[in-house]
Write a structure and sequence with these properties.
Helix content is about 35%, strand content about 25%. The protein has helices spanning about 10, 35-45, 65-70, 85-95, 115-125, 140-150, 155, 205-215, 225-230, 245-250, 335-350, 375-395, 400-424; strands at about 1-5, 25-30, 55-60, 80, 100-105, 130-135, 170-180, 180, 185, 230-240, 265, 265-280, 285-295, 300-305, 310-315, 325-330, 355-360, 365-370. Strands 7, 10, 11, 12, 13, 14, 15, 16, 17 and 18 form a 10-stranded mixed sheet that branches. The chain has a 6-stranded parallel sheet with strand order 3-2-1-4-5-6, with helices on both faces. Strands 8-9 form a two-stranded antiparallel sheet. Strand 2 (about 25-30), helix 2 and strand 3 form a beta-alpha-beta unit. It holds the Pfam family Oxidoreduct_C. This is Putative oxidoreductase C-terminal domain-containing protein.
Length: about 425
């Protein structure tokens, strides 16, 4: 069952058919533009030339869609990806009806809603169901390799402590409003630009970075947000959009009344840029989230610097738009030693990633990732859905650190937004 699918990610989990998922899907939603856009995306998947899907949609739309959802329940799992602020209440409704949920980030966008997140997990535990986040960035091969290399003590050493000005882990994510989804121009709803509905950038796309910061620095370990995270600083700045740019992103000819509070001098000030600096188990981390109008490279970008006592691992976006991994010895005199260890590690990974190799660039090494192991952002949603189906059938296999780390990542994002507002 899909409830209130206002975001295109609700459709992307159905971009391809997966074993274990019935082709009949039930959509509970208001009969509005968001719902019609969702149905159009599912239709496009069914009608494409290569590997078409065969979804059957049972649409149950109307003002009473939530009452019907709670009462009828023709399915046994829920997909949520829409307006962000009410999402946590929809998750709690599903949990109270003993339904597992796969929900797109963010689950909460304001720190005042953090108690609801804690209550959600308690309800889910009571009902013996689980809540799953669409953490697609864990399936990006470059992020996965940074995690693998950083946990290799012979190659990476231990984590440097860093400082707020020179953190041991730095990540920057840049997203763009104008893009293609499933080969078609994406039309964004007006509420996307309302921070009270969709949240500021750090509360939204920053969820991925906050998750990766724990996933990389403390793999397979639970993080206690109350004792192991210390928020240090945060700031914010708007992305200024002209009326023409807003129209190109939304197909609307004017700013709606709901966005008037954010219009200044005839331009829309979108809450698209944030930073967060914090200490995570003693390791200094800095996250940067940014939005632009249109990408010069054709897609979103991601950058990362992870500093160890023996090596520094970097993800750099290339002019082609493709992210690549580079490794540098912390002490240049140990370059040859680092190169041997990196090649040894890649040799071990050949069992899963055949064709991976290392190129010596003199002062750093470039990890060559075969095209076969590259996947698009859209393809990552199938991987997340596959994971959800596995845990649906074996919920006790869910790692015990997932729940505390979910609390921790939303503590980081919402607390950062709160701190940035106080500082501005």
């Amino acid at each position: 069952m899909t409830v209130a699918p206002g975001h295109f990610h609700a459709a992307l989990v159905q971009k391809r058919a997966l074993y274990g998922i019935d082709p009949r899907t039930h959509v509970y939603a208001p009969l509005d533009d968001d719902t019609l856009a969702h149905l159009a995306r599912i239709t496009a998947f069914n009608n494409r030339r290569d590997h078409p899907t065969s979804w059957e949609v049972d649409l149950r739309a109307g003002a009473d869609y939530l009452e019907r959802f709670a009462r009828e329940q023709p399915g046994n799992a829920v997909v949520l990806s829409g307006r962000n602020r009410p999402k946590i209440d929809l998750m709690r409704l599903a949990a109270s009806n003993c339904l597992p949920v796969i929900a797109d980030k963010p689950w909460i966008i304001e720190h005042s809603d953090f108690p609801k997140l804690d209550a959600l997990f308690k309800e889910a535990e009571l009902r013996e169901v689980f809540m799953w986040d669409m953490l697609t960035e864990r399936f990006e091969i470059t992020n996965w390799l940074v995690r693998e290399f950083a946990r290799d003590a012979d190659l990476f050493g231990s984590w440097q402590v860093g400082t707020p000005d020179e953190p041991a882990l730095w990540m920057r994510s840049v997203h763009f409003l104008k893009k293609l989804v499933n080969g078609r121009p994406l039309v964004r709803p007006w509420w996307w630009f309302d921070p009270t509905v969709s949240g500021e950038a750090m509360a939204d796309v920053g969820t991925h970075l906050a998750d990766l910061s724990m996933w990389i620095t403390a793999p397979d370990q639970a993080i206690d947000y109350a004792t192991q995270i210390q928020m240090l600083a945060a700031d914010r700045a708007p992305l200024v959009l002209t009326r023409e740019q807003f129209g190109a992103a939304t197909n609307l000819g004017a700013f709606p009344e709901e966005l008037r509070p954010y219009v200044r001098g005839g331009n829309l000030h979108y809450a698209g840029n944030n930073t967060a600096t914090y200490s995570l188990r003693g390791v200094h981390v800095k996250l940067e989230t940014a939005w632009g109008f249109e990408s010069p490279m054709g897609g979103d970008t991601h950058a990362c610097v992870a500093r160890g006592t023996k090596a520094t691992i970097t993800i750099r976006q290339q002019p082609s738009g493709r992210p690549e991994i580079f490794v540098t010895a912390t002490d240049p005199a140990h370059h040859a030693e680092m190169l041997d260890r990196l090649r040894g590690r890649c040799s071990v990974l050949q069992r899963d990633f055949a064709g991976m190799s290392v190129s010596d660039l003199g002062t750093e090494a470039h990890v060559i990732i075969p095209d076969a192991w590259r996947a698009s952002h859209e393809d990552h949603f199938a991987a997340v859905m596959d994971e959800f189906v596995r845990y649906f059938h074996a919920p006790r296999a869910i790692p015990p650190w997932e729940r505390p780390n979910a609390l921790a990542r939303y503590y980081i994002t919402t607390k950062a937004v709160e701190l940035a507002r106080q500082a501005s």
